[in-house]
Amino acid sequence: MKILLVSDVESKALWDYWQPGRSGSPDLIISCGDLKASYLEFLVTMEGRRVLYVPGNHDTSYEKHPPEGCDCIDDQLININGVRILGLGGSMRYNPGSNQYTEDEMNSRIRRLRYKLWRAKGVDLVITHAPVKDCGDATDLCHMGFECFKDLIDKYHPKYLCHGHVHINYGHDVPRLREYHGTTIINAYERYMIEI
Questions:
Q1: How does DSSP assign 98-143, residue by residue?
Q2: pLDDT tens-place string over residues 21-58
């Protein structure tokens, strides 16, 4: 299954200059957060593919106007064509805004999913907004990753963990791909295609 990951900034190639096939003809589109609802609505309409998403820390408008025709997978484990996908949106808490969590709060969210993970016999693809601690995150509180994501990887060994939040254009040393204990960590900034 080909999956188009999108996050943080609307791709001009996919939106402003959209043409059939330019996206690489994915089977599924997944947003790792911080994208306009209208952009996700455009993708689901023009690409004719299912769009899944988790909210980013800037997606407060989703509370009043969620992206129409798209499916929120935040705090859910779903199975699509045999691929088990887990969604955990939001970032580290850095102000009183929504879609922000302390380390303990994020860890509690993961614990609440343990039974579903056990029943599904694990997970193949973890979709987050925030990165994994020390695996492509930044040092400021806003862009710091979650340590509990390491525990999630160590326990369930997903093939991929895909996140956004840390923009690749922040600096030349922001990596697109990393490896952590056998899991490929992907920064989905703008767009990136995977096959699983």
A1: SSEE-HHHHHHHHHHTHHHHHHTTS-SEEEESS-BTTBS--SSGGG
A2: 777 789 999 999 999 999 999 999 999 999 999 999 99
